[in-house]
Amino acid sequence: MIPPAEVVPYDDRWPAWFDELRASLDRLLAGLPAEIEHVGSTAVPGLAAKPIIDVDVVVPTAEQVPTAVAALAAGGYEHEGDLGIAGREAFRMPVDAVRYHHLYVVVAGNKAHRDHLVLRDRLRTDPEALARYAELKRELAPLLRVDRSAYVDGKGALIEELLS
Q1: Which of 1, 100, 103, 131 is most buried, judging by how many CB atoms fall within 10 Å of its CB?
Q2: Rounded distance, CA 137 to CA 143, Å?
Q3: Could you tell me the strand order of the sheet in which 35-39 lies?
Q4: Is residue 2 part of a domain?
Q5: Residue 126 neighbours by CB under 8 Å, 6+ apart
Q6: What is the DSSP letter of 58?
Q7: Residue 87 has what pLDDT?
Q8: CATH number at residue 102
Q9: Is residue 27 very low, low, confident or very high in pLDDT (cuts 50, 70, 90)?
Q10: Range of the domain at 113
């Protein structure tokens, strides 16, 4: 599946897409004490975004991370390590995935988990922050077709400001 390379207006279907993913992940993680959180731009009503559902599998302790990694791998996810962000284990989607999504395993309350929640919740409750972030995403959107890293890097300063 080719990753979406455009920023689109908010889509009311995104919460339902997350619910589908959560149900699938609940089955894979059966017996593991984990919460599944919708994070990222598609979790913010009204925010323009790439139509990619970001999902955190939140485990209570670091000791449970290997169990979660193994369960997800058994379900077709490919573990990619932390991809340069400490405290966050990233996964490539199964080849038969129906919805494009990013999946991470984080420990409850660690920096990666807090950053995801703080940014999401700030954008949900601060209309000015939401407008600034949406405008920046639209400005940077052409980079998605030529340099995804530049798109991500271009958002960095504002994200750091919003997290502080």
Answers
A1: 103
A2: 10
A3: 35-39, 53-59, 101-107, 88-92, 78-81
A4: no
A5: none
A6: E
A7: 94
A8: 3.30.460.10
A9: very high
A10: 14-163
